[in-house]
Automatic annotation (TrEMBL):
A Pfam family recorded for this sequence: Ion_trans_2
Keyword Membrane: yes
PANTHER family assigned: POTASSIUM VOLTAGE-GATED CHANNEL PROTEIN SHAB (PTHR11537:SF254), VOLTAGE-GATED POTASSIUM CHANNEL (PTHR11537)
Transport found in the keyword field: yes
Domain Potassium channel: 135-212
Lineage: Bacteria, Bacillati, Actinomycetota, Actinomycetes, Micrococcales
Membrane topology recorded in Swiss-Prot or TrEMBL: Multi-pass membrane protein
Protein name per its UniProtKB record: Putative ion transport protein
Localization: Membrane
């Protein structure tokens, strides 16, 4: 993909576009490495040396994102305007657990969803939102388990418990059989509930719109055939 094929942001300019195109895959891989290393550090029963190695991997993969963000600002034609219009880029820097969401960009750009038709756009949105919901559930389960297991009174003590809790929380079911007790755990729960309402609401609306569009297309095809 050339720079002309890669969308040039009016505030970022062509130099920034070339940089973002060059680091897109390396940052995606760094996000995956971060997620794998963090998962092992939380779920796995590792020894002291392995835990130290994982912390280094997490720190290095974390550090690539603020460096890339600073280079984005330096290369941007209008740095302040670009930063103001791209808050998600800063969010990936401030919240490392959200960085693996970059992986969904690769799927959203897949050739399977490059058609200009409205149904193709809705399908792309559905895939992106569904993937976001699954990934956020998994990340929240890891974060809550890490926060809660240090509390002696915690009832979320295994990854299975935390994953179940995250699933019922993001869907706003909330059975109440597992509840975070720490301040950090409750903050994660609040963010997950708010995010779950937003993501699932848009997902439901998009799915409904896609079904209506498909029914309309089939009706139109039937009328044409008659």
């Amino acid at each position: 993909m050339t720079v002309t094929e890669h969308r040039v942001d009016p505030w970022g300019g062509p130099r920034q576009a070339r940089w973002q195109q060059a680091v897109d895959w390396p940052l995606t891989i760094a996000a995956l490495v971060f997620l794998v290393a963090y998962s092992i550090s939380v779920i796995g029963a590792v020894d002291v040396s392995t835990a130290a190695l994982l912390r280094i991997v997490i720190l290095v993969s974390w550090g690539l994102f603020p460096v890339s963000y600073l280079i984005d600002l330096v290369l941007a034609d209008h740095a302040w305007q670009w930063a103001r219009r791209h808050p998600v880029n800063l969010l990936f820097v401030l919240l490392p657990l959200l960085r693996p969401l970059r992986l969904l960009r690769v799927l959203a750009r897949s050739s399977l969803f490059q058609s200009s038709a409205g149904t193709a756009f809705r399908a792309r949105v559905l895939v992106y939102l569904a993937g976001t919901a699954v990934l956020v559930t998994y990340i929240a389960a890891l974060a809550v388990l890490e926060a809660e297991r240090s509390d002696p009174n915690a009832n979320i003590t295994s990854f299975g418990d935390s994953l179940w809790w995250a699933a019922v929380t993001i869907t706003t079911v909330g059975y109440g059989d597992f509840t975070p007790l720490t301040i950090r755990g409750r903050a994660i729960a609040t963010a997950l509930m708010l995010g779950g309402v937003a993501v699932l609401g848009v997902l439901t609306a998009t799915l409904s719109s896609w079904i209506v569009q498909r029914v309309a297309d089939l009706e139109e095809e039937r009328h044409r055939a008659e």
